[in-house]
Amino acid sequence: MVFIGGAGNMAGAVIGGMVASGYPADKIVATGRDKEKLKAFCDRTGVHGSTDNLAAIEHADVVVLSVKPQVMKELCESIAEKVSARKPLVITLAAGIPLAAYQRWLGAGVPIIRAMPNTPALVGTGVTGLYAGDGVTDEQKSVATQMADAVGIALWVEQESGIDQVIAVSGSGPAYYFQFMESMIDAAEKAGMDRADAERLTLQTALGAAKLAVAADVDVAQLKRNVMSPNGTTERAVKRFQEGGLPELVAQAMGDCAARAAEMAKELDK
Ligand SMILES: NC(=O)C1=CN([C@@H]2O[C@H](COP(=O)(O)OP(=O)(O)OC[C@H]3O[C@@H](n4cnc5c(N)ncnc54)[C@H](OP(=O)(O)O)[C@@H]3O)[C@@H](O)[C@H]2O)C=CC1
Ligand SMILES: O=C(O)[C@@H]1CCC=N1
């Protein structure tokens, strides 16, 4: 399996998670342009590295594309001849680029899967949304499912637009939680708590809440009520969130996120 842009944030997290879960590191090649960054990544994970995309994909059955959306067209055009001749399975991790664009850039008939992972893949707790284009076999779909399963959970979507919904929930989602944690840490520090203590307590609380929510047989609304004693401290805090419009703000932010994915598609599908 070859990851183009393999030492980057997203592919690096997927590769790190795959290797940690037992996928053989010597079956993975990561490519990049920055030799030092690539070497450090390969030393850390045990995967092979290459600064030559064409040489790296020469015999590959699966090519994962993980460069920034803005440079994806240029990258695809640079590998198109080789890819359209051999037709390996191409899995793209990029946000905001429709399958139709890859078909134009890489040539018709190349099997393409859009995958939308998230960075918690690195710790085996990722979410990957998946969408398969025409001509992708069940065996190829199962390769993508295996990659996703190795680093967390997978969800296949029926429509390509489902990928934009996945971006709004889980692709970008970790940043929403990091933002919330950052705000809690800042507020606790401002209120007089040592920053390191504030960080420790905030992160453990986030971890505990997420673990409890996953393990519980009641929904998150009930778990929230379980923390709220009538006329107690939590009720006061939650009332402030609700009066301040947090639910609407979250919905707006997620809407903005999905809208940006659609906007990127218009900018980049050329
Ligand atoms: N970050 C995230 O949370 C998520 C990102 N994504 C998607 O993943 C993709 C990558 O994003 P992210 O990892 O954040 O970005 P990064 O910039 O961290 O990684 C991109 C990598 O691509 C490499 N690269 C650029 N051009 C080339 C090239 N021509 N040949 C080989 N390697 C190249 C860069 O390495 P070098 O500097 O060595 O060239 C860099 O390491 C994007 O398309 C994004 O939409 C999807 C889901 C979540
Ligand atoms: O912010 C971005 O565009 C990428 C896609 C999802 C997460 N990061």
From TrEMBL:
Keyword Transcription regulation: no
GO molecular function, one term: pyrroline-5-carboxylate reductase activity
Functional pathway: Amino-acid biosynthesis; L-proline biosynthesis; L-proline from L-glutamate 5-semialdehyde: step 1/1
Enzyme Commission number, as recorded: 1.5.1.2
Catalytic activity: L-proline + NADP(+) = (S)-1-pyrroline-5-carboxylate + NADPH + 2 H(+); L-proline + NAD(+) = (S)-1-pyrroline-5-carboxylate + NADH + 2 H(+)
Domain Pyrroline-5-carboxylate reductase catalytic N-terminal per the UniProt entry, residue ranges: 2-95
Family assignment from sequence similarity: Belongs to the pyrroline-5-carboxylate reductase family.
InterPro entries in alphabetical order: 6-PGluconate_DH-like_C_sf, NAD(P)-bd_dom_sf, P5C_Rdtase_cat_N, P5CR_dimer, Pyrroline-COOH_reductase
Gene encoding the protein: proC
Limits of the Pyrroline-5-carboxylate reductase dimerisation domain: 160-264
Extent of the signal sequence: none
Main location group: cytoplasm
Localization per record: Cytoplasm
Keyword field: Amino-acid biosynthesis, Cytoplasm, NADP, Oxidoreductase, Proline biosynthesis
Protein function: Catalyzes the reduction of 1-pyrroline-5-carboxylate (PCA) to L-proline.
Pfam families assigned: F420_oxidored, P5CR_dimer
Record carries keyword NADP: yes
Name of this chain's protein: Pyrroline-5-carboxylate reductase
